[in-house]
Each structure stands twice: as structure tokens, then as C-alpha cells.
Amino acid sequence: MDLFLQQLLNALTLGSIYGLVALGLTLVYGVLNIPNFAHGALYAVGAYVAYVVMVDYSGNYWLAMALAAVAVAVLAMLSERLVFYPLRNSPPLHDKIAAIGLVMFIEAMLQWHFGAEFRHMPVAFDTQVQLGNLSMPAQRLLIIAAAFGLMAVLHLFLTRTMTGSTIVAVAQNREGASLVGIDTRRVALLTFAISGALAAVAATLFAPINLVYPAMGHLLIMKAFVIIVLGGMGSVPGAIVGALIIGFAESFGGFYISNEYKDVIAFAALVVILSIKPTGLFAKRAN
Fold this sequence. Notes:
Distance between the termini: 38 Å
Helix content: over 70%
Shape: globular
Largest sheet: 2 strands, antiparallel
Radius of gyration: 19 Å
Structural class: mainly alpha
């Protein structure tokens, strides 16, 4: 039973991180129809900013998370304004190629400045929480609580605020939203900012139990794309449910089948579900 609960904790931890990253990715796709391959590189930038604040400047963990969120949100807005906005009327392939180029540029800058070696970020909360016979690391509980809290805040923001409603309106019909006076350029910038901030928070939460290195976003962004395809492209609830499915498949599959194939299990889950529902789980309820 303890082993099962341990795997449940691992699954929720993975699902929480995947959910935060996939939410940013699906927001950008839903509003702008851009598959932002650079999202993984933004995640890596968030981890490095938090690392520098905590290690080089002995900063507080929460301060590091806030500065990382602001820095990556600004970087995401710059990428929208300087890279994607000029390509808004170009063939669809151009923004995909631009996103790949942006990934290579950001990673090259990280490697040039920090080197390619792996770095360890200090664990902010290294205590153990006892629940019966089960010992749970406080950092993992923080990841789960923070991720689900942010998801709830994002849901309330999109459904209960005027600004959030403009994002939903643009995602549903960009031309119609523009005709009724919504500034679609401002909405695009705001969407990229939220997406970048979510990636930075996810990186700051996960980095203390992982490693920090320039290519740390590669596998994560692949799984995030799996998740948003699984949940339905552009669907916020689909991204959350898809992230939990992949997190549970990886954790329990890796433990009960083989840890070496845990990544394969996640992609196999995508194939099985899409063969049953090709449009994704929440395609009809996107946004």
C-alpha cells in the first residue's frame, strides 16, 4: 500500500509539472494557432533565472520564482513581438520554423553563458511530511499544491474576469473579437506572458528535484505536445486531464512494468487514446 501511495505521489508530481507547461502551450495555440516549440527553452530559462537568484545571490526561493516568472514572461512577449508577430500573414510553416530557430538560439545562449554541465538547484523545502507509514518530501507536496492552485487561478481568470474573457473570445473567433473592439495584439502579448510565467513557475518548482541544463526542456516539450494533442488542441481542461493521464501512465507504468520504458509508455498511451478518439478528449469543449 505504501508503494502504491508513493507512486500516486510521484504521478501527481509529474502530472502537476506537465499540466503547468501544457497549459501555457495550449493557451498560445488556442489564441494564435502557433505550436510554440520554443516553450521548452523558455522553461529552461526560468530554471536558470531561479538558479542564479538562489545560488549566486543567495535569494529567497519565492523571490527566485517571482523573478523567474517576470523574466520569462518578458522574454515570451519579446518573442511574440519580434519573431511571431511579423510572420502573422506568412504561410503556417514559417512560424514553426521560426519557433525551432528560437529554441536553438535560446539554448545556444544558455550554453554559452552557463556551459553545458548539469547544475543542482538547492531544495527549498527538504523536510519530510509523515502520513502514517508514508514519508512524503515537502518539495513534492509543494509542487502539487502550487500547480493545482495555479490551475484554479487560471480557470477563474479566464472565466470570471473581463481580461480573461477577451482571451477566450480571441481563441474562439479572432476576426469577430477584433470587430467588437478587442485589441488582439494586446491579447496575444498577454497570452505569451501568461504562458512564459507558467513555464518559469513549473521550472522553479521542479528544478530542485531535477537537474538544470540548457536542453532540459527537450523531453518536457515533447510530452507537453503529447498532452495537448491528447486533451484536444487549445483546450485548457484537456491539458490538465491529459497531463494527469501522462503523469499516471509514466509513474505507474515505470514502477509496475519498467522504469526504462516509462517515456515509451506515455507515448503509447497517446496512440491508444487517439485511436479511440482521434480529435482528443476535450476537442468539442476547447477553450
